[in-house]
Design a protein that fits this description.
There is one protein chain. The chain is α/β, with parallel strands linked by helices. It has a single domain (3-281), classed as TIM Barrel. It is 44% helix and 14% strand. The protein is built from ten helices and eight strands. An eight-stranded parallel beta sheet has the order 5-4-3-2-1-8-7-6. Helix 1 (20-29) packs parallel to helix 2, helix 4 (120-138) packs across helix 5 and helix 5 runs parallel beside helix 7 (191-198). The longest helix has 21 residues, at 77-97. The radius of gyration is 17 Å and the shape is globular. 47% of the residues are buried.
Length: 283
């Protein structure tokens, strides 16, 4: 059965007790889970948040990115070692959060580009780090789902074809893949083709509008997406990922310069929209 989640980055990248009323309200709307950003806050912060999330009856997933000094595809072995260490620290925090999945573009450093197209050696370097990270994630019963981003945020993995190639190179059962409708809207020839490509390893889906606002209020063809997910018999999270300027530091880091929709409008209307598509396409 598919579960519906909401990424609380619409409010904040940080974790504190101020987030708890938001989580409680998401539960009353009907969500099955929340997705939280894994920062370098103390592990105990994540453990407390995980306990609170469990107390509401919700589940947790998580997301993070890597910076240039911890880049899995850097030519320097020392930098790649720091990348693996950073991923392990994120896994520790996700485990404390009781999160079953970690998603995000941690195959390479976010917004760090080279003066060339992605090279085979870079895929191999990323795969080596992901394989080792998968082994560490296995002991925590966590699945890693690296994410393809649009060309303005990364260059290694923009499409589902590239992501599938990387996951297969990583060759670990705890390293799978995910699909994000916002990035696919930029990079893919068709949503159906992209979903069919990634379906053998698809474990997570971000429902995200073209402008990062309320799903269903932009021009992403969600009918094609939900019909394709149904055809591929996808069973997993359908998590809304939308952004705002509520957390200015985070918004500035990802290039969010205006409000797309109010967070609670996104949460309430987005949940109803996904429910309607689940019913329509028998997901």
């Amino acid at each position: 059965m598919n579960k519906i989640g909401f990424n609380v980055l619409a409010w904040t990248a940080g974790i504190s007790e101020s987030l708890y009323p938001i989580i409680e309200r998401l539960k009353t709307i009907g969500y099955d889970g929340v997705e939280l950003f894994i920062s370098n806050q103390d592990v105990e912060v994540f453990r407390q948040a995980g306990d609170f999330i469990r107390s509401t009856g919700l589940e947790a997933t998580s997301v993070f990115v890597l910076g240039k000094d911890e880049n899995p595809i850097d030519p320097s072995p020392a930098v790649r070692a720091r990348a693996l260490d950073a991923i392990k620290r994120k896994i520790d925090r996700a485990q404390a959060l009781n999160a079953s999945l970690i998603v995000g573009p941690f195959h390479s450093a976010h917004t760090v580009f080279a003066n060339h197209a992605p090279e085979e050696d870079e895929y191999k370097l990323a795969a080596e780090v992901l394989h080792a990270a998968g082994a560490y994630a296995a002991q925590a019963d966590i699945t890693l789902c690296p994410e393809a981003l649009n060309r303005f945020e990364c260059y290694l993995c923009n499409t589902m074809e590239q992501l599938l190639k990387l996951v297969r190179l990583a060759d670990h059962p705890n390293v799978q893949g995910m699909f994000d409708s916002h990035h696919a809207n930029v990079e893919e020839k068709s949503f159906a083709g992209a979903i069919e490509t990634i379906s053998p390893v698809l474990r997570h889906v971000h429902i995200s509008e073209n402008d990062r606002g309320t799903p269903g209020e932009g021009h992403v063809n969600f009918d094609e997406i939900f019909a394709s997910l149904a055809q591929q018999q996808y069973k997993g999270w359908l998590t809304i990922e939308a952004f705002s300027r509520n957390d200015p530091d985070f918004a500035n880091a990802i290039g969010v310069w205006r409000e797309f929709s109010k967070p609670w409008d996104i949460a309430e209307k987005g949940y109803a929209f996904i429910q309607s598509k689940i019913a329509q396409y028998h997901l």
